[in-house]
Design a protein that fits this description.
The chain contains 7 helices and 8 strands; from the N terminus they run H-H-H-E-E-E-H-H-E-E-E-H-E-E-H. It is mostly helical. The protein folds into 3 domains: 58 residues; 93 residues, Zinc/RING finger domain, C3HC4 (zinc finger) (Herpes Virus-1, 2-Layer Sandwich), CATH 3.30.40.10; 69 residues, no CATH class. The longest helix has 33 residues. The termini are far apart.
């Protein structure tokens, strides 16, 4: 089409139609983008209780999918090196206390050494746990919590570790995981409160007491005070663990 053709009424009509089609397509694409179904929890959160029944029925008719598996098999972790080299693939010895397998190479043991009938105990189990419950392999080396070893995770003596997953593969496992997370949150909250109580005892209540009608009022260590201490940088939650 030449520039001189722009004054032709037919050309003008064609341009208008093209512009109209492009505009409609843009509007439709925006509506499609905005009309995408929100997350089910958000959808139900803002529905009145009397409408929940209908909303749940609608959700049941929708096929929800994810491009990746929700639960994946994870590689095994053995020895202090935490590599996935199983006992049937390389020379290894098993700790009699925690049932963890260790590579000969990592321990500096000569290949082919026979540990049959020998009660061998790893360095982790020989070292006493610190105040946070961690055992160290050596000074400054990898550490392990006293509640995190194969014997407590369903392993069988003389066998490989049980298969690990990215998330519990069963409903019962998921419920147990949620309960465990809630328990750990409660432990961390308690430890944060104890830390703030220690700071108040060291610095004196006058640092945090509130001004009342009759003067200074003793302020208890509650969630609000803990949040203020964290906000002021006096307490670092990252330094507080959630272990027993």
């Amino acid at each position: 089409m030449l520039l001189t053709d722009l004054n032709d009424p037919k050309v003008d009509t064609l341009l208008v139609r093209c512009w109209a089609v492009v505009t409609v397509l843009l509007i439709v694409s925006q509506r499609v983008r905005k009309s995408a179904m929100p997350k089910p929890d958000k959808m139900l959160r803002f529905r009145p209780l009397k409408e929940l029944g209908t909303a749940v029925l609608k959700l049941k008719r929708v096929v929800l999918f994810h491009p990746e598996p929700l639960v994946k098999k994870l590689a095994g972790e053995y020895c202090v090196c935490r590599k996935d080299e199983r006992p049937d693939e390389t020379g290894m010895v098993q700790c009699e206390t925690c049932w963890e397998w260790f590579h000969f190479d990592c321990l500096g043991i000569e290949e082919g050494t026979d540990y049959t009938g020998v009660d061998w105990t790893c360095v982790w189990c020989k070292n006493k746990p610190d105040k946070q419950g961690y055992q160290r392999w050596k000074k400054g080396a990898r550490r392990r919590h006293v509640r995190d070893f194969p014997k407590l995770h369903g392993a069988e003596y003389g066998e490989n570790q049980p298969q690990r997953y990215s998330a519990p593969p069963t409903w019962e496992g998921k419920v147990a995981e949620v309960k465990e997370l809630a328990r750990r949150q409660a432990i961390k909250k308690r430890k944060l409160t104890e830390t703030v109580e220690g700071l108040v005892d060291q610095g004196g209540h006058h640092l945090v007491d509130a001004q009342g009608m009759a003067g200074l009022v003793l302020r208890p260590v509650d969630a609000g005070l803990v949040d203020e201490m964290i906000g002021e940088g006096l307490v670092d939650p990252a330094q507080i663990d959630d272990k027993d």
